Amino acid sequence: MKYLKQFLVILLITLIGEVLKYIIPLPIPASIYGMVILFICLMTGFIKLEDVKETGKFMIEIMPVMFIPAGVGLITSWEVLKSMFIPVCIITVVTLVTVMAATGLLSQNVIRKERDADHE
Q1: Residue 52: which of 18, 8, 14 has the closest Cα?
Q2: Which residues lie below 8 Å from residue 73, measured CB to CB, with a gap of 6+?
Q3: Residues 6+ apart with CB under 8 A from 56
Q4: Would the pTM count as exceeding 0.90?
């Protein structure tokens, strides 16, 4: 019953994100609205971490399974994508390296600042 309650909380926030997507005329995906709402609710204490923790962990663990339909869609669209294969691969590699570098640098800065704050 606990998992059902946690899933319903996440589902309700997702629904609110979907509604906001149609109300607010910005090119922002509904999932981003939902994540921001969940973040704000967690930070303010409106929703306790214990209210969504186990189900959130489970959803993260099964996330790779959710990419199977997208992969199948790519395979079925091979004729359309064949002409764009090289540019898409280049863009993917450049984006991957850029995100990895930015994440690494940001992580190093955060760790450095925390270490400096601990020494003071």
Answers
A1: 8
A2: none
A3: 6, 10
A4: no
The tokens 């005329």 sit on which residue? 25
Three-class secondary structure of residue 35 per DSSP? helix
Cβ(55)–Cβ(4) under 8 Å? no
Lookup: tokens for 70: 């997208």
pLDDT tens profile 68-81: 988 888 888 888 88
Between CA 32 and CA 16 the distance in angstroms is 11
Rounded to the nearest 10°, the torsion over CA 100, 105, 109, 110 is 0
Name which of 49, 50, 11, 7 is nearest 31 in CA terms. 11
